[in-house]
Amino acid sequence: MKRIDFLKQVALLLAGSAFLPKLKFLQDSNFTELRNGVGIFTMQGGTIGWFTTEDAIVAIDSQYPDPAGNFISGISNFGGGPEKVLFNTHHHGDHTGGNSVFEENSYQIIGHANVPDLMRMSAEGSDNQPTVPGTTFEEQYDMDMGNETIHAKHYGPAHTGGDSVIWFENANVAHMGDLMFNRLYPFIDRGGGALIANWITTLENVVSEANSDTQFIFGHGNPEFGVTGSGDDLLHMRDFLSHLMEYTRRGIAEGHSKEELMDIESFDEFPNFISPSDFLSLSRNVDVAYRELTEEE
Ligand SMILES: [Zn+2]
């Protein structure tokens, strides 16, 4: 297929699924090593994190079936032993859609205790039964792999009701899942248990547990800013969410309707945030902030 035809097909696919809560940026599959055996894989959906040792392969998030297949065949170039583990940072389809492929390849799947039910809820009405984590935890899950210590930690409801951050302690790398949309208007899944107020606190808590050398992996990013970064990027996201809440709180106090407040495209203070689709926009963020502040469903 000529590249231009391929791009046309992609455009059609994207147009057809414009209303779905998915982030399907099609890219070439791509492995990048960060440090100490920890790296990222990008192709389609939320950024996959990975770690290999002589004894094990650890993956974080599974994108969709096709990229999951590419990941599993490509990761062998980076070594990795017989033990195989997949963490899900949360339940969304662009992070768990490839779970079945990982399971077929003998990966043990681990996620926060709310992830299985949230996955089943999201799949209601569809023919596909989701492949949910077989191992779950409430607060923290620890694992030693060779000379690396990995821990997955839940900080309370934020992007969803079942988010976790996966820390590689020796490499000093942490995968944030969708707690980080780097300079992108985030998806805030109120129906799936999201809470903006605690998302703000979560980012602060994560930064307080990190140091200036910690490298973070983000679920999604503005292409200009990328899917890795530092604690400063987390604090920028924290500032955006705080500003969103303050804008909405002030608007409500001044007697504006939700519709009036939603009539906004950007904040002057956050010029680098982009809206890659109607689904991810400041207007939608204001809608959710308004409902959180007024406790409207
Ligand atoms: Zn998500």
Describe the structure.
The protein has about 300 residues and is α/β, with parallel strands linked by helices. It has a single domain, classed as Metallo-beta-lactamase, Chain A (4-Layer Sandwich), CATH 3.60.15. It contains 9 helices and 15 strands. The strands form 3 sheets. Strands 1-2-3-4-5-6-7 form a 7-stranded mixed sheet. The chain has a 6-stranded mixed sheet with strand order 8-9-10-11-13-15. It has a two-stranded parallel sheet with strand order 12-14. The longest helix has 23 residues, at about 230-255. Residues about 1-25 have low confidence and may be disordered. Zinc ion binds near residues 90, 92, 159, 178 and 187. InterPro entries: Metallo-B-lactamas, NDM-1-like, RibonucZ/Hydroxyglut_hydro. Belongs to the metallo-beta-lactamase superfamily. Class-B beta-lactamase family.
How do the strands of the widest beta sheet line up side by side? 1-2-3-4-5-6-7
Provide a count of the helices: 9
Distance between the termini: 47 Å
Rg on CA atoms, Å: 19 Å
Query: Which ligands does the model contain, each kind named once?
Result: zinc ion
Q: Provide the residue-averaged pLDDT.
A: 91
Helix content: 25-40%
